[in-house]
Design goal:
Transcriptional regulator, 8 helices, WH_DNA-bd_sf, Tscrpt_reg_Rrf2, 2 strands, 2 domains, two-stranded antiparallel sheet, 143 residues, Arc Repressor Mutant, subunit A
Length: 143
């Protein structure tokens, strides 16, 4: 459903939010190991997300990535749109460019409601809620 870049970004942001909730910072090696992602790939993703304001970074011996409360209140939908665009929320289920209300594909009506439900779910899902679930051991980030 999400691109690999988006999957890694979501897992990394959730992990960083959890680790930095008490003013901590986390390095690329720890992030990569903790979410099962290639170190170089996640470094590139986080560099981009840092430039876009989704996560902060600090250099030096006590450096690393961290998130403030404002970032923990970001919706999953905002992150998905930034990385994968809004095709998940607007695109055709069969990938047709001309699919529309007046020119629907065979899946149009059924997929439209799925897209709407998915959009609502991701817009109402905040990073902080996932951190809370991890802290309660209700969910996990690593296989």
């Amino acid at each position: 459903m999400f691109s690999k870049t988006c999957e890694y970004a979501l897992r990394a942001l959730i992990y960083i939010a959890q680790q930095s909730k008490n003013e901590g910072r986390v390095g690329i090696k720890d992030i990569s190991k903790s979410i099962n992602s290639p170190e170089h790939f996640i470094a590139k993703i986080l560099q981009d997300l840092s430039r876009k304001g989704f996560v902060q970074s600090a250099k030096g011996p006590n450096g690393g990535f961290y998130m403030d409360q404002k970032n923990r209140d970001v919706s999953i939908a905002d992150i998905v749109k930034e990385i994968d665009g809004d095709k998940l929320f607007t695109g055709c289920g069969l990938g047709l460019e001309q699919c529309s209300e007046t020119h629907p594909c065979p899946l149009h009506d059924q997929f439209k409601s799925i897209r709407q439900n998915l959009r609502i779910m991701l817009e109402t899902s905040k990073i902080q809620a996932f951190v809370d679930d991890l802290d309660l051991s209700v969910t996990y980030l690593k296989n």
